[in-house]
Amino acid sequence: MIDIFGNALVDYLAGEYTEDIATYSSLDEEDTIPLPYLFRTFKDMPSLEKTALKLAKGKVLDIGCGAGNHALYLQQKGMDVTGIDTSKGAVKVCQQRGLNAVIHSDILNHSKTKYDTILLLMNGIGLAGTMQKLDGFLSHLKSLLNPNGQILLDSSDIIYMFDQDEDGGYWIPDNGSYYGEVVFTMEYKNQRSEPFPWLYLDYGTLQNAAWAHNFECELVGKGNHYDYLAKLLLH
User: Which residues form a coiled coil (predicted)?
Assistant: First the structure.
């Protein structure tokens, strides 16, 4: 499988930045992921990410760590933090940037260690893929937490992407699936990834899923564009 994301990160770190990652979605949206943004420092992070990093405590696992921005910031603060990513390129970049602990693995295949804080930033809950897989995903994350452990995640309610009628309701296609289920394809330097599912959760849906696993669910903050930061607390 082509490591689009990792190849782009490796190129950028090597000073070979010539283009951004193009994304195409099942919502007929075309967009780009600017590579410099994937190497942002703490001061350039959105406020929700800054808040999440300030709330991190104990032994931390950064899922989908990418270029390692969040993990490296916490490591510089003296915290015990591990990054994990399915991208070989991302893992290589984290190592080259000085992250002490980084694992190349799917999170569902990682079960050896327990953590006090799990980070799922940059819409990280999207890794669950679909609503059907969300329960299993949360169940696995729960198994990785110490008593009183927490999951800090941000996501977005993408209801705004659908047309509204005069009464304020939304026209959502009745295809039997949750409207936050999106399929993406990425393209970089004339190479295209296989399509992959991604899940955007509105807060109410997240809250119900969290309660089903006996998490406390707290809305920590809201961003400027239908995005939010939530904390799931395990007792």
Answer: none
